[in-house]
Amino acid sequence: MSLQYFDLVLSFTALFGLCAFLTLKARLHSALAPLAALGVTSIWFTLAGVADLLVAGGWVFYLAAWGLGIFALVTKRSQARRLLSPGAVVFWGLAVSFAVYFSIRQPMFHDFDEFSFWGPAAQMTSTTNHLYTICEYGTPWQATQNCGLIVLSYFVQFFGAFAPFKVYLAYDLLLFACIAALVGVIGFKYYRLALPMAVIGWCTPWFFTVYARTIFLEDTYMSAYGDVPAGMLAGGAVAMWIALRSEKGAGPRWAVLPVLALLANIKDNTFPIALIAAGCIAADAFLFDYKDRWKQGLARRFGFAVLCLAAPLAQYKIWSNYIAVLVQKNAESGGTGVTSLSPFGAALQGTKMLLGLSVPEEYAARQEQFYTAMANMWDAFFSSEKWTLSMIGPGVVVTALILLMFVIALVFAKGIRQRLRVLCWMGLTTLGFVAYSYVIALSYGFIFKDFQAEGLEDYSRYMDTYYIAWFLIAAAVLAWVVQTGRWRLLAQAGALAFACLMLVRVNMLVLPQMSVLGFSDATFADQYLIMEKVDAVKTQIDEGDRIFFVSQGDNGLLWFTYSCYFQPNILDYSGWEENKETGLYGAGGGSFCLPENMPSEDVEGAIYFHAYSTEDLAKAVAESGCEYIFVDKLDAGFVAGYGSLFTDGLAAAENGETLLYRITPDGYEPVAMEVPR
For this UniProt entry, which segments traverse the membrane (predicted)? Predict the structure, then answer.
């Protein structure tokens, strides 16, 4: 095996060692051990990153995981059969299969946000051994998004070279662990139920993120976005808790705590989902975790319920304090500092606004935007014409399906106590849906821009996260009832039929050759050419050189893409300007034009052009601290407006003889090089 991929072997053995210790020594069921292990892994590396000790923390973690695994396997070798269960087979089978498949096919980043944050953040963390939050990336703003997934990627490729497919693999490990948790403590003799639950778990991300046949790559299991993992993890955490409660000896209850902490560290806008999942588990533990009398173990149950809520809150507090310090330092050094309204302030003032109470001026100014967002979200819930949310239709249909699953669980439930638990899950998750929808409405109303609220930008992506979590919780509750309730054979047959329907529907709407399972090499043809250009330029520059970017017509995507591949060279956020009225920075990228040629605002893409006179562009280049100008795309307007700044009038770039100009006091000189085509 190539040394390039040996880091995957090392990370898999460390993860297996930790799982073996949790199963054999901590007595956690083998189907639940991967999710707990990944939770512990992410929290450990997050703390190490916050302390800026990633390398030392990585070595400690790996040595501890290997040592604990060997210790458990040696001292409990007679119980090694406990490592084998349907859920464990699902996890390790999918994990190894995807590791081999991705190593062969080498998928790459390809979506906008993968290049604007998720990809570069993982790359910088892996290549610099520091959290991306303290790395320079050429932009004037502070990257503050949570790092729970990023550090999982760091763990997977700790000993090897960075590769995008390893990022996908790290995130998929988390998804597979959630599927294993959904299968739960079902044994091999109940394969008639274990198999359908595994299929339901596998289909769930497709079901809520892919809507129709397209000619584009449908990348559910090949995405670096955090939305699907957040939804799967919320459902997986609850499924894990239900499995821990469903069978004596399934494992210690505390194993769910690191999973809840990780859930709070995926994305800032999914933190409410972490609180909802933690609240559901806390309520179930407090109300129903007793044998005979309700007062039995009351203090213990209350204490555990508090811990369930404290785990995500503590993680949120640690990260918030860390980011607050960085933002303050960034502001003191000339960065942006805080540029949006507080989420908690938005919640308070938005609620006051709905109650007819007075609110501060900055919130009152967005009243119309807030009401517009709420009206649009209400329409989107019932309509599938503009906002398609699932393979079965709009939000109202998805909600009806999920509630129907809870009702079916009530029908098959055995005894009043089991029915009360089902009703508790049903009621709390429904209230959670209302609360999360309100949080999204607040975000559109007070945090996002007005055009984002009017068009409900990324609405499907935000809402799908909760639908995935809600659906998995309903499926886990139903699976628990099927194992312990009435008419089990009939219920198992129903679970199998439902799994088959999901599989058929996914197959109807997702072309295999356009999915993660069968993408062609041509899918990444543009990325290959960009990488060749970057490699050609890097042969002409030093590692510490900074580069000014020119790409006419770029909407920012090419800047983000090239920035990712140019690392550790910094691609300057060429052309950014500060809006004196809002304090926010304008669009970056590399599109320029003379002020008299500036497109009108109604022209598509006009926002990405920067109106610079010839003198202003020369001043911007000089102040950027760049040593070179990278010319990706030219148009007649750029050549006519700024050609005089280049010693050859941009002739070499127009003739395809160079991509690079050296910045000198006498002008920008072309650098002789081979230009990939």
Answer: 6-24, 31-50, 56-74, 83-104, 169-188, 194-212, 224-244, 302-319, 391-413, 425-446, 466-482, 489-511
Q: Helix (H, G, I), strand (E, B), or coil: what is residue 143?
A: coil
Question: Phi/psi at 206 (nearest 5 deg)?
Answer: -60, -45
pLDDT of residue 486: 76
The partner residues of 578 in beta bridges, in order of sequence, read 585
Give 3-state DSSP helix, strand, coil % of the chain, rounded to 5.
65, 5, 30
Q: Going by C-beta distance under 8 Å and a sequence separation of 6 or more, which residues neighbour residue 186?
A: 31, 85, 86, 87, 193, 194, 197, 479, 483
Residues with Cβ within 8 Å of 613's Cβ and at least 6 positions away in sequence, in order, are 594, 595
The length of the chain in residues reads: 677
CB 7 within 8 A of CB 61: no
Phi, psi of 593 (to 5 degrees): -160, 160
Write the DSSP symbol of residue 674. Answer: P
SS3 223: coil
CA dist., res. 15 & res. 1, Å (int): 20
Nearest to 122 by CA among 95, 161, 162: 162
Smallest Cα–Cα separation from 270: which of 305, 237, 221, 307?
237
What whole-number distance in Å separates Cα of residue 57 and Cα of residue 151? 11
CB-side neighbour CA atoms (13 Å) of 642: 28
The pTM of this model reads 0.92
pLDDT at res. 588: 63
| Nearest-5° Cα angle at 142, 140 to 144 | 155
Q: What is the DSSP string of 285-344?
A: HHHH--SS-TTTTHHHHHHHHHHHHHHHHHHHHHHHHHHHHHHHHHHHTTS----S--HH
pLDDT number for residue 219: 82
| Separation CA 563–CA 552 (nearest Å) | 16
- Please state, in angstroms and rounded to a whole number, the distance separating the CA atoms of residues 32 and 177: 7
Q: Where are the domains of the chain?
A: 3-509, 524-670
Neighbours of 673 (CB within 10 A): 16
| C-alpha to C-alpha distance for 184 and 570, rounded to whole angstroms | 47
Q: Pick from 49, 102, 109, 107: which is nearest to 564 by CA? A: 109
Q: From CA 5, how far away is CA 10, in angstroms rounded? A: 9
Residue 514 has φ and ψ, to the nearest 5°, of: -110, 20
Instruction: Say which amino acid occupies 52.
Output: D
Amino acid at 259: V
If we measure between CA atoms, which residue out of 532, 533, 527 comes closest to residue 658? 533
The conformational region for residue 313 under phi > 0 = left, psi -120 to 50 = alpha, else beta, is: alpha
> Which segments in the chain show pLDDT lower than 70?
1-4, 140-142, 211-216, 330-345, 384-387, 575-588, 604-605
Query: Tokens representing 267?
Result: 């994305």
- Cβ-contact 559, 589 below 8 angstroms: yes
Cα Dmax for the chain: 88
Secondary structure class of 515 (helix, strand, coil) = strand
Task: Identify which of 185, 183, 273, 176 has the alpha carbon closest to the alpha carbon of residue 230.
Answer: 273
Phi, psi of 646 (to 5 degrees): -100, 135
How many angstroms separate the CA atoms of 568 and 564, rounded? 9
Radius of gyration (C-alpha) of the chain in whole angstroms: 27
Backbone region of residue 246 per phi and psi (left: phi > 0; alpha: psi in -120 to 50; beta: other values): alpha
Strand order in 570-571's β-sheet?
570-571, 546-551, 628-633, 660-664, 667-670
